[in-house]
Write a structure and sequence with these properties.
Pfam families: Epimerase (PF01370). It is found in: Golgi apparatus, Golgi stack membrane. The chain is of the alpha/beta class and about 450 residues long. It is built from 15 helices and 13 strands. The chain has a single domain (about 90-445), classed as NAD(P)-binding Rossmann-like Domain (Rossmann fold), CATH 3.40.50.720. The chain has helices at about 5-20, 30-50, 70-75, 85-95, 115-125, 140-155, 165-175, 195-215, 255-270, 295-305, 325-340, 370-380, 405-410, 420-435, 440-445, and strands at about 105-110, 130-135, 155-160, 180-185, 225-230, 275-280, 285, 305-310, 320, 325, 355-360, 370, 385-390. Helix 6 links the parallel strand 2 and strand 3. The longest helix is centred in the first third of the chain and has 22 residues, at about 30-50. The structure holds uridine-5'-diphosphate-glucuronic acid. Uridine-5'-diphosphate-glucuronic acid (UGA) binds near residues 188, 230, 320, 370 and 397.
């Protein structure tokens, strides 16, 4: 009842205002009618323009919150794609040069750290590869553009678009019969989830569903390999972490969205017969890495003489350690996962038989304390770090990670061969080259090869 009350006075007020309006602005005058209809026509035109998926419009690589802002969401859906020239580039990027067994792979997050390395590796061995990336500014987009430049040189076209853009995904699957999707696009980083939780739900949950929806409707259905995370082990205290261990106690929203992804994978495998492999990456590092990761910004800050914050654990878990895994080892694991994926069995959105559903740890099996990581960086950079040792805040971090990789060893032939000292040496060399003289670095490396 109380909600009904204001209506009367408002209406009353409104009609009083009408009677006071001068003649030329009276809404019932011919001029106002004309204004009214022009406004309607313009609104209709704008609505049509914004909702049409293929309409060319300026590219917005925004990381704003599209679920909070519907107009931004629309703008993400109208990214500049489509047309004969664009389709030609897509097809040529997907042309297999390793017949007859070459794969045709859609790599999401292709301008990202693991995505760019994987795309280059696949293209080098002759597979057809198409990249997809939103180039958002979670971290410096110029680094993503530099990776894209490498990929273009290697013959990989990176489509600029959002994984939540269903019309774009449908178009890609209509143009190319992908045999595989390497789904690496995600909102990464454990601690950033405290600042921007929505972004994790959008990318890691909604985005994954969007990819699986497109894949289940595609004909043929591709096999999916996607990036889960070691963080799903959360507060698990059994070491080393095995795939059969508990993963129902995540310590961060990031971990929770990756765990949710593993459950979602089960659903799409069960209902639609999609072949799905989740890879639990263990703190992947190396050249062309992510600036939001500790080894990367420690390097930057040590060189600048800025203090770095080194976390230490609480009580018996005093040493904070990670099973740091070198990029080339992880990429070999990804390639093996694609090669052994097995086929999806569905068609026309219907399951025709059981399909593989797999999860593997891709770690290094040798956890290293973060303090030791800093020691190695100091030696390589020849600069003493200014350390601020603090108790680990409740920020989503777990004290340690340690992978048991026997399953990946058995099924994928996965065998990491790079220790932290060797991998960081390669990273530091790349870092110094890339950030002091960018162009020279690009020429010298001549690709993403790091070995
Ligand atoms: O293994 C994984 O699945 C995850 O690995 C990393 O997460 P994390 O291991 O936390 O990597 P960093 O953020 O680089 O942190 C490495 C270590 O440095 C510590 N750290 C971090 C930041 C800092 O200021 N000080 C500090 O001591 C962290 O506690 C952690 O032990 C990635 O950022 C995640 O995207 C990925 O999913």
């Amino acid at each position: 009842m109380s909600q009904m009350k204001p209506e009367k006075p408002l209406h009353h007020h409104h009609s009083r205002l009408l009677t006071r309006w001068p003649h030329h602005s009276n809404p019932y005058s011919p001029f106002s009618k004309l204004l009214f209809w022009s406004f309607c026509a313009l609104s209709l035109f704008l609505a049509f323009f914004l909702l049409t998926p293929n309409s060319p419009s300026p590219n917005l690589h925004s990381t704003g919150d599209p679920t909070q802002n519907p107009s931004l969401r629309r703008s993400l859906r109208t990214t500049n794609w489509g047309g004969p020239a664009w389709e030609k580039k897509v097809r040529s990027s997907c042309r297999v040069r390793r017949s007859p067994n070459g794969l045709t792979v859609l790599v999401t997050g292709a301008a990202g750290f693991v995505g760019s390395h994987l795309s280059a590796t696949l293209r080098r061995r002759g597979d057809g590869v198409l990249g997809l990336d939103s180039f958002n500014d979670y971290y410096d987009p110029t680094l993503k553009r530099a990776r894209q430049a490498f990929l273009e040189k290697a013959g990989v076209f990176v489509v600029e678009g959002d994984i939540n853009d269903a019309a774009l995904l449908k178009k890609l699957f209509d143009v190319v019969p992908f045999t595989h999707v390497a789904h690496l696009a995600a909102q990464a980083g454990v601690r950033y989830a405290l600042q921007n939780p929505g972004s994790y739900v959008r990318s890691n949950v909604a985005g994954l569903v969007s990819i699986l929806e497109a894949a289940k409707s595609a004909n043929p259905q591709p096999a999916i390999v996607w990036a889960s995370s070691s963080s799903v082990y959360g507060l698990n205290s059994r070491v080393p972490f095995s795939e059969s261990d508990r993963t129902d106690r995540p310590a961060s929203l990031y971990a929770a969205t990756k765990k949710a992804g593993e459950e979602i994978a089960h659903v799409y495998n069960h209902i639609y017969g999609l072949s799905i492999t989740g890879l639990r990456f263990f703190t992947v590092y190396g050249p062309w890495g992510r600036p939001d990761m500790a080894y990367f910004f420690f390097t930057k800050d040590i060189l600048k003489g800025k203090p770095i914050t080194v976390f230490e654990g609480h009580g018996s878990a005093h040493t904070v350690a990670r099973d740091f895994t070198y990029i080339d080892d992880v990429v070999r694991g990804c390639v093996a996962a694609l090669d052994t994926a097995g086929k999806s069995t569905g068609s026309g959105g219907k399951k025709r038989g059981p399909a593989p559903l797999r999860v593997y740890n891709l770690g290094n099996t040798t956890p290293v304390p973060v303090s030791e990581l800093v020691n190695i960086l100091e030696k390589l950079l020849k600069v003493k770090a200014v350390r601020k040792v603090v108790k680990m805040p409740r920020n989503g971090d777990v004290p340690y990670t340690h992978a048991n990789i026997s399953l990946a060893e058995r099924d994928l032939g996965y065998k990491p061969v790079t220790d932290l000292q060797t991998g960081l040496k390669r990273f530091v060399k790349w870092y110094l080259d890339f950030y002091s003289v960018k162009k020279e670095a690009v020429k010298e490396h001549g690709g993403l090869a790091t070995e």
